[in-house]
Amino acid sequence: MSDNIEQDYRRVVDTSVGTSFLPGTSIEIVRGLQAKRVPRQVLFDFDGTLSLVREGWPEIMVPMMVEFLTETGTSESQDELYKLSHDFVMELNGKQTIYQMFRLVEEIEKRGGTARPALEYKEIYHQRLMDRIESRRDDLRTGRVEPTEMLVPGTMELLTNLMARGAVLYLASGTDENYVKEEVELLQLSLFFGEHVHGAVDDYKSFSKAQVIQRILETNNVDGAELLGFGDGYVEIQNIKAVGGTAVAVASDESGRSGKPDEWKRNRLIGVGADLVIPDYAECDRLLAYLFEG
Ligand SMILES: [Mg+2]
Hints:
- The chain is an alpha/beta fold.
- It folds into two domains: about 20-50 and about 150-294, HAD superfamily/HAD-like (Rossmann fold, 3-Layer(aba) Sandwich), CATH 3.40.50; about 60-140, no CATH class.
- The protein is built from eleven helices and eight strands.
- An eight-stranded mixed sheet has the order 1-2-8-7-6-3-4-5, with helices on both faces.
- Helix 1 (about 60-70) packs across helix 2 (about 80-90) and helix 3 packs antiparallel against helix 4.
- The radius of gyration is 19 Å and the shape is globular.
- The termini are far apart.
- Magnesium ion binds near residues 47, 48, 232 and 233.
C-alpha cells in the first residue's frame, strides 16, 4: 500500500548488554568509540532531540487514532484501541508522520472501515497539534518565553561548542520541512544550521533521513566514520550506524526535563545500536571532550 522507503525498527543489540558511565556523569557508554576519527559532520534529529515545541504530540495523535478506529464499529474497548494505537504510534516514531497514518489506514481497513487517504489524516492531526502548540510558538515569537525553555537542556552550549570545534551541523526531521524551518527560527537556531535544515515533504518518497545522510557524505566526499549523530528516535540512530558513524541516543524526558533518561527511549535506542546514551546536554563539555579527544 505504501512504499516503505524508511526501514522498520530492527533490534540488533540485546538491552541487557553491560554498559558503563563516563566517571561522575550521566553519560552512558554502550560501546567504546570505534571510529578513531574526529567528527566533522554532525546530524541532529529535531523534535525531542533539540526542540520541545511539539512536546506532547502523542496526546493528540493517539486519541485521534482511537477516534477513527472507533468509527469502524469495532467491538474493541477504548482502552484496547488506546493501547494498540499508542504502541504503533510510538513504534513508528522517528519516521515521517505519514507512516503513522499509513498504519492507521491499515488498521481501519482491517476492521472493515473505509479509510480516507493517509495524507488527509496527517492534515487533521497536524491541525489539532497546531491548535495545541500555537500558543507556544506565539510565546517564542513575542519573546514571552526564552528559546532555552523550549529546548532540551544544554542545546545552545552543545551547538556552540560543536561549531567552535569546526563541525558542520545538519538537521533532518520527520516533521514537515516548512514547520521545522519556522521552529528553527523561533528557537534561534538558524545560525547553527543555515541551509542545512531538512524535513518531510508531501511527496514522502523524496525525503528520508538516510537520503540526507547519503548526501552529506557524497557532498563532502567523506565516509561515515566522520559522521556523528544525535537522536531520540530509532530511525536516525539506525541510519547513522548503517554508514559507520557514531550515534548518540538522546533519551530526553520531554515533559519533565528532569535530567534523567527516559527508559523507554533508552532501551529502544540501545537496541538499534546507539553508542552512547544521554538524558540531555547538561554535560556536553565532557561529552564532546570524549567524542573529539577520546
Ligand atoms: Mg525525535
